[in-house]
Amino acid sequence: MSEKRILVTGAAGFLGSHLCDKLLSEGVSVLGVDNLCTGNPVNLAHLANEPRFAFEEADITRPFDFGKVDYVFNFASPASPVDYHRLGVETLLVGSAGTINTLEIAKKYDAGYLHASTSECYGDPEVHPQVETYWGNVNPVGPRSVYDEAKRFSEAAVTAYHRYYGVDTHLVRIFNTYGPRLQANDGRVISNFMMQALRGEPLTIYGDGMQTRSFCYVSDLVAGIVLLSKTHEHTPVNIGNPVEWTMLECAQEILAVTGSQSKIVFHPLPQDDPTRRRPDITKARNLLGWEPKVFLKEGLGLSLDYFKSFVK
Ligand code: NAD
Ligand code: UDP
């Protein structure tokens, strides 16, 4: 029997490229698709001589078909607030038309399907920690809505393709994830603080730094996603690290890991910036037997050489 062929959209991005590596390590063949709007071919350069990996540069907001696949992982979308503010309409389109186009592929080839959704579906949550049954608190016309509402539409579309067409769909709600290949200049908090600390520049905290996030190391996230893809769970599953950090604590942790003498400065908080974010991972624990293994200090240490490579 020929080996399974898996489609990964957003393959040249941070998470997509790690997912390609993980899938290839399991012996399948992988077709990566990406339009490189926020991704970087450097993330896939190590696969140049891998016979089980192929890459197509394509925009998934237009219908596409590169032949039969057994599974679709839909990871294409700008993800950092800086990127999706710059690419607002493109973000809405990839979450809507792009998601439908990838679902059509899964339907056509009777393939499994997993969509990269996000904790942003919970918006600025009134329920803490966030459990999958919470419907969220999203401003549909705020600056983050191009991303949040696109992802909420995607979840509806994915669910509809399961409900109406019987596609074997999966939805993962990813909480803030970091690690090597996180774009060094994409404005996310870990990349900003790491680069600022390594360059000896002030660390820029937005607001008073008391807002919280929960940071998952990329290998933990990808392991959870691959486990989820092998289930028949169709409703959303949170994957993230449940340890909650204020941005002030995060800045201090990064100063310690990098050994930097940088100062901390305070900048205005962006509009609609969620106040707190922590996943309830009971469902992932019970369904997948999954637990995060890498905690922030270790994960930052594992990412240090990557971020150092950008410092001249
Ligand atoms: P990323 O920007 O590094 O990767 C996204 C990739 O999608 C890029 O390579 C980009 O070029 C590609 N892309 C965007 N629009 C496309 C289009 N129209 N056609 C083809 N390719 C397109 O971001 P990431 O952090 O790797 O995020 C990957 C996925 O995971 C996204 O869907 C994101 O919403 C989701 N997610 C990420 C996080 C996180 O913390 N990293 C958290 C929640 C959800
Ligand atoms: N943030 C910060 N300084 C920065 C970048 C981000 O204080 O240089 C804050 C941001 O306001 C938010 C948190 O860090 O409260 C996480 O931001 P990020 O853009 O990484 O992700 P998201 O807001 O999408 O969770």
Automatic annotation (TrEMBL):
GO terms for molecular function: NAD+ binding; UDP-glucuronate decarboxylase activity. It holds the Pfam family Epimerase. Its cofactor is NAD(+). GO terms for biological process: D-xylose metabolic process; UDP-D-xylose biosynthetic process. CDD domains: UGD_SDR_e. GO terms for cellular component: cytoplasm. Keywords: Decarboxylase, Glycoprotein, Golgi apparatus, Lyase, Membrane, NAD, Signal-anchor, Transmembrane, Transmembrane helix. It is found in: Golgi apparatus membrane; Golgi apparatus, Golgi stack membrane. Residues 6-240 form the NAD-dependent epimerase/dehydratase domain. It is a single-pass type II membrane protein. Its main location: Golgi. InterPro entries: Epimerase_deHydtase (IPR001509), NAD(P)-bd_dom_sf (IPR036291), UXS-like (IPR044516). It comes from the Bacteria. This is dTDP-glucose 4,6-dehydratase.
